[in-house]
């Protein structure tokens, strides 16, 4: 034991010495941070004391300084976990930097001396002489920390991950990137401590919120994070390859690179509100509080929050681009619903009347070739009604012959318009005949199956019309009531078709009339007015500079259209995995995406390593992948735990027995892992599953299959796999999602429909 013991002892002292060295550096960093904090506070106070005098230029300068100091203070005050997390020891450079990134050119093996050591952290910190104490992880100089591999080490001799708690360094983990050399630092051999930081991170218990991965971003991920912003960056990769993590780190990177452009201008679209709350903490941990809008696809329309799920049959109709046609007709029909069929006014000493046929013709003229939002056509409706009434009024009169007669007729016309358009019968008629229509009101009209079927024509089949109507039956006549994420995209589409309703019913002269007079059919003024109106509506709907789509494989054509409307000027990062798609028509979604990206240059990346699931779980998932998306390669699992998934079964069709089995599994798993446990069930068994978890505490959640998207847990029970696979056309892909949520343990619990064979494996998973 002697020799072994002393070797261990020696390595312990080396470790302690290395930790002490890093502690010393961290202390210096914190001292410097405190100085900077004091400085920022001083600048703020000083600025506040100074009176508002000085040249505009000096004031602007001061304001800018105050702003920077304030922002800086806020970031410094953020108590970061692992503020300083990395270090690279580099060989002397013999080649100039490439695009601002230190050269990756291999070095001269004859010169294994560490020429410089760089510390990497969440923010950059300079010492009093402007020397770098810590380099921001997003800076080009930090790239080799993530890019260097033993095959392509570049200048990196050693990479070190530093773990700390508060202000105390508790560990270091090194990778020697040039085992072929004996690198030297300060005249001594470069010590190498620990056995890899990545594995330690991956094995940690999960909580209910996602952690950042700054200290262990891998090379293929780093390439995505730092990819140029222009055009569209498309990233695919299997479950657990870090797509979500990478997408969020990319947002932080873009902010670092061009804050002026991206602050407040990045939108991250997530499939569910659950995934939004799971990922919300990552950007603040990276020092980017409140700079990025992370929204669920069901919350993209202001003031609306999706709270319902549609059945798969209904989802596939609502998500389809066929809905555009249906909604166009629905909007038009909503306008006409209950419209009066006769207009009577008294003017020029007699009753004037427009009958149903006449009104129909006028309506057709108002809409013209279509295209203009219906609510914006109201001024035109008013004008064309007056035209029609006027021709009634002068029907029996001879046409004016002379110039003077024409002048006279024109004057009469003007006073006719003025008089009629102030009369209550006319105003009441206009309100009823061309009412302001809201998107929700239109949806509400589609509750009536007969109505929906009537306007559907070839857009949807009668059966589809029935399903749609049934899905909206709970709405009231104004459209109030819970909506699904699919409905939200429909509301957004309707908003475009309808335009903003006129603000109020104030009965004054229309802006259009002021601009144009009443005599031309369509005037420049009117077009300009409509144009401004359209721009106003568009402005109210935010435009983003960069849009990041997570789980892009699930977006329906209608959702792509909705996101596209917010991103006309944007550059894109789109991450997804077709094999996990719950949308049944990938080609249609692809076409919708192509339309949104409209010729933007695309750069493609593939992530290949599964950091979430141990090999034992990945292996089971791969079998379902082969059924769900034959030929799709499985990402390779980066670690294994030795714990194989368990297959349990309930043989009787007895809900109570199934519940007892599920609960027993959950309790067992709670004992086996330190973190979170989830049970995933078919969507229509969610209420049942909620009962199984009652009283088991906060570590346990019950999820419907579609709710599990993007989330992860230490252990999962996938209950009723056959039920999940049979839920929809995309069921097998949804099951693949469910099977890939666990970081440690998986139990598959099947019912009598899918009993396991002698080896305990249900047929579906063989
Ligand atoms: N380089 C890394 N270092 C440490 N952990 C990582 C790394 N990359 C990914 N992970 C971890 O792996 C897990 C999976 O990552 P993430 O959720 O981003 O994957 P995903 O590709 O979005 O998965 P899915 O397609 O299933 O939604 C997370 O816990 C993440 O923190």
Automatic annotation (TrEMBL):
Q: Which residues of this UniProt protein bind ATP?
A: 237-244
Keyword Transport set for record: no
- Residues forming the UvrD-like helicase ATP-binding domain are 216-614
Q: Which InterPro entries match?
A: DNA_helicase_UvrD/REP, P-loop_NTPase, UvrD-like_ATP-bd, UvrD-like_helicase_C
Q: Which GO terms describe its biological process?
A: recombinational repair
Q: Which GO terms describe its molecular function?
A: 3'-5' DNA helicase activity; ATP binding; DNA binding; hydrolase activity
Cite the Pfam families for this sequence. UvrD-helicase, UvrD_C_2
Keywords assigned by UniProt?
A: ATP-binding, Helicase, Hydrolase, Nucleotide-binding
UniProt-recorded name of the protein: UvrD-like helicase ATP-binding domain-containing protein
Protein's organism: Kitasatospora setae (strain ATCC 33774 / DSM 43861 / JCM 3304 / KCC A-0304 / NBRC 14216 / KM-6054) (Streptomyces setae)
């Amino acid at each position: 034991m002697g020799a072994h013991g002393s070797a261990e002892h020696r390595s312990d002292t080396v470790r302690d010495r290395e930790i002490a060295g890093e502690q010393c550096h961290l202390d210096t960093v914190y001292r410097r941070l405190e100085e900077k904090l004091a400085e920022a506070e001083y600048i703020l106070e000083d600025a506040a004391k100074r009176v508002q005098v000085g040249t505009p230029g000096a004031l602007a300068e001061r304001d800018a300084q105050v702003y920077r100091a304030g922002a800086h203070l806020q970031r410094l005050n953020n108590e970061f976990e692992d503020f300083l997390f990395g270090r690279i020891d580099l060989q002397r450079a013999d080649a100039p930097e490439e695009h601002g990134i230190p050269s990756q050119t291999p070095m001269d093996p004859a010169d294994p001396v560490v020429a410089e050591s760089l510390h990497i952290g969440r923010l950059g910190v300079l010492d009093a002489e402007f020397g770098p104490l810590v380099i921001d992880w997003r800076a080009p100089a930090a790239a080799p920390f993530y890019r260097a591999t033993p095959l392509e080490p570049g200048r990196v001799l050693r990479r070190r991950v530093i773990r700390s708690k508060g202000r105390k360094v508790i560990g270091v983990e090194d990778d020697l990137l040039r085992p072929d050399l004996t690198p030297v630092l300060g005249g001594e051999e470069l010590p190498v401590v620990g056995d890899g930081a990545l594995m330690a991170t991956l094995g940690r218990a999960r909580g209910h919120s996602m952690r950042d991965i700054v200290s262990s971003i891998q090379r293929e991920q780093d390439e995505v994070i730092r990819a140029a912003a222009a055009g569209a960056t498309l990233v695919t990769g299997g479950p657990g390859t870090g797509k979500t993590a990478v997408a969020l780190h990319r947002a932080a990177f873009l902010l670092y690179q061009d804050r002026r452009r991206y602050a407040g201008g990045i939108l991250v679209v997530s499939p569910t509100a659950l995934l939004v709350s799971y990922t919300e903490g990552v950007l603040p941990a990276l020092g980017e509080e409140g700079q990025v809008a992370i929204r669920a696809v069901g919350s993209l329309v202001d003031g609306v929050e999706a709270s319902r799920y549609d059945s798969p049959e209904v989802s596939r109709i609502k998500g389809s681009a066929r809905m555009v046609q249906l909604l166009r007709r629905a909007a038009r029909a909503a306008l006409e619903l209950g419209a009066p069929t006769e207009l009577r006014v008294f003017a020029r000493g007699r009753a004037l009347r427009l009958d149903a046929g006449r009104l129909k013709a006028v309506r057709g003229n108002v809409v013209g070739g279509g295209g203009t939002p219906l609510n914006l056509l109201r001024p035109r409706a008013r004008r064309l009604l007056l035209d029609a009434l006027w021709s009634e009024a002068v029907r029996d009169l001879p046409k004016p012959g002379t110039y003077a007669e024409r002048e006279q007729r024109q004057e009469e016309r003007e006073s006719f318009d003025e008089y009629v358009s102030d009369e209550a019968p006319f105003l009441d008629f206009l309100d009823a005949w061309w009412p302001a229509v809201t998107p929700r009101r239109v949806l509400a009209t589609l509750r009536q199956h007969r109505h929906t079927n009537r306007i559907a024509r070839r857009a949807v089949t009668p059966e589809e019309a029935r399903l749609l109507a049934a899905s909206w039956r709970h709405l009231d006549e104004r459209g109030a009531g819970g909506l699904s994420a699919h409905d939200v995209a429909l509301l957004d589409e309707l908003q475009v078709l309808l335009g903003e309703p006129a603000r109020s019913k104030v009965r004054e002269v229309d802006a259009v009339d002021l601009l144009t007079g009443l005599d031309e059919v369509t005037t420049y003024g009117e077009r300009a007015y409509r144009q401004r109106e359209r721009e106003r509506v568009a402005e109210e709907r935010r435009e983003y500079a960069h849009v990041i789509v997570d789980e892009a494989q699930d977006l329906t054509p209608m959702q792509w259209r909705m996101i596209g409307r917010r991103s006309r000027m944007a550059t894109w990062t789109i991450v997804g995995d077709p094999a996990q798609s719950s949308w049944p028509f990938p080609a249609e979604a692809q076409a919708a995406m192509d339309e949104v990206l409209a010729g933007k240059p695309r750069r493609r990346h593939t992530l290949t390593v599964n950091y979430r699931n141990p090999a034992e779980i990945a292996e089971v998932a791969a079998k379902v992948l082969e059924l769900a998306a034959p030929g799709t390669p499985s990402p390779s699992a980066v670690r294994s735990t030795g714990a194989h998934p368990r297959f349990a079964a309930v043989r009787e069709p007895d809900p109570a027995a199934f519940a007892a089995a599920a609960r027993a599994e959950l309790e067992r798993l709670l004992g086996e892992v330190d973190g979170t446990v989830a049970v995933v069930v078919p969507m229509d068994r969610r209420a049942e599953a909620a009962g199984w978890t009652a009283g088991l505490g906060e570590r346990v959640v019950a999820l419907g299959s579609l709710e599990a998207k993007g989330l992860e847990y230490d252990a999962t029970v996938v209950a009723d796999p056959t039920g999940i696979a049979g839920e929809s056309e995309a069921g097998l892909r949804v099951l693949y999602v469910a099977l890939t949520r666990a970081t440690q343990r998986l139990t598959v619990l099947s019912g009598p429909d899918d009993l396991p064979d002698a080896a305990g494996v249900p047929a579906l998973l063989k």
